[in-house]
Amino acid sequence: MEEKYLRLINKAFEIRKMAYSPYSNFKVGAALLCENGKIYEGCNIENGAYGPSICAERVAFVEAVKNDERDFDAIAIVTGPKGADVYDMGSPCGVCRQFMSEFCDDNFKVIMTKMTKEGELLDSKILTMDEILPDRFKLKDFNRL
Length: 145
What we know:
Elements: H1 3-16, E1 26-34, E2 39-43, H2 56-66, E3 72-81, E4 86-87, H3 94-101, E5 109-116, E6 121-128, H4 129-132, H5 139-142
């Protein structure tokens, strides 16, 4: 795996620790790599009403977009329940997939990881945006009419 993606995974692992998940105890960290090399991080933030909760992937994208970033290479995701010895691979939820597709081309990479609680990478899977959300809805496509 390329060094830039290993660095991205480490950032996602670290920001996962900042997740606010008192209801599910499921912590998620995401690190988003821009084409220019800049990295934006996000962690999930839960709310007692559930609906207002926000996923780590969307937090990272919001941070990037508010800083006028629009060209993205990859996102790394580290997930797992609080207190687990191993964090199994988790993939973005459907809402996050659609949210990311607003800003990403078909070749954007989604890096899912399996890690130990100490941060050792045990396994990973890299899928493209087209693979995780084929034939996705893009309103921009309809604005040409």
